[in-house]
Amino acid sequence: xxxxxxxxxxxxxxxxxxxxxxxxxxxxxxxxxxxxxxxxxxxxxxxxxxxxxxxxxxxxxxxxxxxxxxxxxxxxxxxxxxxxxxxxxxxxxxxxxxxxxxxxxxxxxxxxxxxxxxxxxxxxxxxxxxxxxxxxxxxxxxxxxxxxxxxxxxxxxxxxxx
Length: 162
Known about the structure:
Elements: E1 37-38, H1 60-73, E2 91-97, E3 101-106, H2 119-129, E4 135-140, H3 153-158
Parallel strand pairs: 1-2, 3-4
Antiparallel strand pairs: 2-3
């Protein structure tokens, strides 16, 4: 699959992901905000919908799978910060795609993060261990950059930021 890269090496926001679904570069406003599920390309699957993926209504199974993925990601910690990556706001999107495919878009607190080479792989491993996930992928993005504003209230409280 072609991969459009900008001069900085970042993926352009209009590229299609590994599952053929357009990836959005704008993350949810908070880590607890629900994200969309993409429709299946197969018209015989129950998740099929004639509308665009942005208007697709996730099934109960999609929502349950997403919640299991969130719980798995809450077991992954940045080694320098005593808060999980989900509550830190490092997870920008969890996209449940037809037939139990999952795409997680995430960032790190800094491009110079010492675990930049290992943390995304650890997250992908955790996602693939979740019951119901057939194929999980993690895409690391730097735009928009992570800021403390993305942290959940509980993370801010844990770090004494109130």
